[in-house]
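Worked Example 4.2. Consider the chain below.
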Amino acid sequence: MVRVRPLERERELDRISVLLDRTESGAGAVLVVEGPSGIGKSRLLDEAAAMALDAGHDVLAARAGELECNYPFGLVLGLLEGRFARASPQDRAALFHGQAALAAPLLSPGDDDPGHASTVDEFALVHGLYWCVVGLSERRPVALIVDDAHWADELSLRFLNYLARRVDDVPVALILAVRTGDPTARSDLVAHLLDAGDEFRLHPAELSLDATRELLTGPVVPADAEEFIRASWDATGGNPFLLRELAKAICDDPVEWSAADPSRVAAFAPDAVARTVTRRLKRLGPEAYAFAQACAVFGDGASLARVSRLAGLQLDAGACAGDSLTQAHILSSADPASFAHPMIASAVRAECDVLGRQRAHLRAAQLLHAEGAGVDEVARHVFDGSPTHEPWAVEALHRAARAAARRGAPEVAVRYLRRVIDVLPSDRLTRSTLVDLGMVEAASGEETALTRFEQALTLIDEPAGHAQALYALGQTLFRRGRHEEALATFRRGVELVGDEDPDMALMFEGALHCVRILVHGYTMESVSDAAAALCTRPPRTRAERFILAPQALIRALSDPRIAAAADLACAALGNGALLTEQTSQGIAAILAIGALHWAGRAHDAQHAAEALMADARDRGDAVAFAEGALVRAICLLDRGLVTEAMADAYTAIEGFGSGWHAYGPTPQAVLCRCLIERGELHEAQRRLAESEADLVGHASVDTWFLAARGQLRLANGQAPAALDDLLETGKLLARAGITNPTVIPWRSWGTVAAHRCCEFALAKRLITEQVELARGYGLPGALGGALRARALLEDQPLDTLTEAVDVLETADAQLELARALRDLGMVLRRSGQRTASRRPLRRALELAHRSGAVVLGDSVRQELLASGAKPRRVPMTGIESLTPTELRIAKLAVQEDSNRKIAELLFVTKNTVAWHLLRVYRKLGVSSREELRKVAVT
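Applying the procedure from the previous section yields the following structure tokens:
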């Protein structure tokens, strides 16, 4: 068949051609066709699909519908599910390779039901879908074509946005049509998609008078009927759809229009389309009318047999009705049934009143249930239908809610389960319904979750199944930053389980303490005798390991016998056992790693954090990955590795995008400290200002923000304000029961601030306390830092600084050692020992460069110049010149085989990896991975 190009769309077709050419060359882009209804967006997408096929692209197309906007990932399934379902087992295994496997539960779902509405990480599904598309594009270029994207469900829109931000990395043409002029069809997600398509953003114009003449003239409208043609153009505004409808109206009733009276078209506007469609329907007869109404209930894509049954027609009669509607241009296809245009679908749907539509949807649900259709399809029509408490309908809503939760759409699950609650009499409410509703309400941010569980408790005699769900609820609440509700949930779990299940009771008690120490401080007072007894023997079970984690942290932060705390932390971690045993939302491992770090085992803690991140990466759990990045960032920063800590801090901050609020603005506080070391004070200020709203009101969490702000103010020369912040930090730490001087060395920083404020007595008191605490805990890093700060107050500080350097030589704190060496060199130079000063200063400069501490390096360089030395300039090439992200990617490039593998590990795109590697090669003077392996980047 010869394809007829649309009128006056040459520019748009040229841009589509440019896009497809770019995709063939290996770089994708987003193209958005934007315009009012009827302007010809769908026609352009049809042309794009045909052009992509001609160019050898793999074309995947879907159209969003107004009726499907609440179906989680409905549009994505329309795009991808068929392709994956048709793949052979071998091909499917290849398509689900690596991170793409995270999308397997969606694109290749099993029939397993976990027994409750367990929720998944939305990011894992979206990230996995992205890698599925990458896998397809590695075979040949892909064209993803989405019509009426404004009606897509929220999760599909999130995926489209995720892909749009990364599409230039892969040979994928993402082509979308979005309607304008309808406020109800717009959202922030749609707006972001439009922004992504700025380079290829098309706004098809209305047809010109000449094009209108070409479209209308023929057997009925003579070419010389200029006045009629102009009137038609004016009445329709040149809208192609309205002009075609006018042409159909003329063809349907040529006698009435034979006079070509211009006054006849004056009223032909969008509102008239519904009337003409209705008249056209009624002329086709009752069977066609019933068929069209059934199409409107199901939406586009329903089979001829299904639509015929809902319309009450035999299959032959349904086929005839469908053919009639297709010939009348009301449908574009009868099998599967699809309307010719959304305006026509809306017109047909408007013919039925609300109660009639509800009855029709319930009949559709009954029909689908009887034929064994998927639970999601049945539930959608039950939800839109007349309220019913028929068992099959209630079960469909409940099962669909669980499926929505597993797809990362708890909001949809909430709507379904609340309908169940609304329609069921109170004596028929079940435990599982209330438990599931409580779970999804918690996951979606609702405040009624624990109340639902309390209702469920009145309906059950045995607590075992409920305890598991209650535990998961507490974990969800904690991660969402709803600490008090999490506390109440875990406390209720302890009461519920009692002595009937000692192992589960320990799990609840452990979780209770994990949260309590963040909210109310670090104290062992309320630990049960059974839990305390575990400190005297090795743990044997998951629950025993779990409850040791908070006890280890409490001891590390409040008891100078830190060796015992480190042993407890190691026992809790169990050589990785705790990591593999904890749920995907477990919090115990984070606390055990923190305990290990603050007990003086920073290097071991870093390795444990890396194991946690690797496990989270394998599961596609972006939140757990961010939690691991935060604790590793703290380890790295305390060890003096500013550049690497900064990269992890950025990763942790990105975790907030997945709903992570358990630790407030702690990641931003860690990043702020890194930025201060690098001299990026304006960026540090911006980050802190943005994160202040995330303060949670708990001393053990908010201290990180307050201490970072105090350091920033000190760096900015605002000593009085800095001193206030640091003294308040001390009060909060004392309230939380934290005495370990390495957690936040606020006394050492406060000593500097007090000295600058000429409050010498306060400075002396603060540093005396810090030195005593550091000696008591036996932590050389804290002691060396305290001695260095004490030297600031002394008239003859040489001996103190020498001791500080000696102590720090035994510590894993190279940045603090660099500072002490700088101060020692400075004192030697000022005492006239210029030659002797150069050795510690040169070593300080080397350590500062290795740490990425730009400010310290600059100050050391000035001291070296003053000593008469000629220090080397800041390297513009070499390891020290790499940014945090470049350094991380360089290290992975030495270990991993491909850019794709690195991209999967870091949750970025292949193009991002390639771009950073190019900069790494340039800075290091190499041209390949083989040469990179010869450079010391480990």
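The mean pLDDT is 82. The two ends are 62 Å apart (CA to CA). Compare this with Example 4.1 before moving on.
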